[in-house]
Write a structure and sequence with these properties.
Elements: E1 2-6, E2 15-17, H1 21-33, H2 42-51, H3 54-62, H4 90-99, H5 102-109, H6 129-140, H7 144-155, H8 157-201, H9 203-210, E3 214-217, E4 222-226, E5 231-234, E6 239-244, E7 252-254, E8 262-266, H10 278-287, H11 291-302, H12 307-314, H13 318-330, E9 334-339, E10 342-347, H14 349-353, H15 355-364
Parallel strand pairs: 1-5, 2-6, 6-8
Antiparallel strand pairs: 1-4, 3-4, 7-8, 9-10
Helix pairs in contact: 1-8, 4-8, 6-7, 7-8, 8-9, 10-15, 12-13
Length: 365
Amino acid sequence: MSVRIDIAGLRPERVVVVPSPLAELGMALHALSEPGHHPGLRGWTADVTARLDAHLADRMCEADFLWRSTFSDLFMPFAGLPGAVPGATLAADLDLLDKLADEDFVDAALEFTCMLTYDTQAPDILSDGVVRRRALEAAASRGPRQVRFTQRLLDDPPSVRAWLRRFLEDCDEAFFADTWDRMRHQLTADARHKGELLRHKGLAEALAAVSPAVTLDEAAARITVDKLTEGRTVTAGGLLLIPTNLGRPHLSVLHRYGWQPALHYPVASPEPASPPSVEQLTLRMTALSHPVRMRICRHLARSTYTTSELAQVHGLTAPEVSRHLGVLKKAGLVTTRRRGRYVLHQLDVAVVARLGGDLLEGLLR
């Protein structure tokens, strides 16, 4: 499984390596909302959380599905604007966000429902009644906050845009400006290094330095990113490589239809963790040995899902999905909770994040 980017006709000068303050703020919000994804940032998340104003913390929860369960493409608006690149400041990036058409803004904001097309052309959600209905139904299984947000977004996109910009500006004032000031030099240095590799050794070398999971087939004019998902796109005039300090372990690939592809790659180092018992480790490794359960885990790592939603996504029956979920739950990899009439499942990312170190520790013990 992989995401493939067709780069036929891509000119070398249209490959741009540059940090983005807005993309990094998105990762900051994600790390604060899902600290289990980022064990190496424990100190930073604890410090920011302790100092966070209660009112801003409440606002952070109002639309956290834009950065908690998925990394919304709204944090890379430059990819949706022909020829645009990230701004040097957060204000410049937010100005690019303001330039997105309402249709593009709404479509990107509703990515958390996972019900809309992504790498193929979709109908206009603001005018297509069927698509609007599907978006609201998908939001309903996520909870009342998501329904309210979706309804407001569909009815009045400008008010949501204004709310989001004010919120991000307040986050910048509260904690991100200082964080960005400390990180931007490392990110700029990494971007400069990758740019030198591009100029002197070519795209293949630069991509290899981005991540071993990213490869270039020069004969086929195709970049392949090894991920537990399928996707395909073409370069819409350019390719963006965006370093992140807060993003590990995520290697994000923006491959939205009609947008410039973007690789958001980490430059920081991970932190080790402690293993469980050998018996529990054996259960977990066995549970993950099945390819269908691996694909289910990919979805559950990003958001909560009902059994019927997982069945629809994977082309299985509900009983088949239930059996796979039972194996994952017995291994302690998946948690389940009820919200109204919906039973929602989610991957325990902290447990999964430790599996590599757990295996080594188990073998040596």
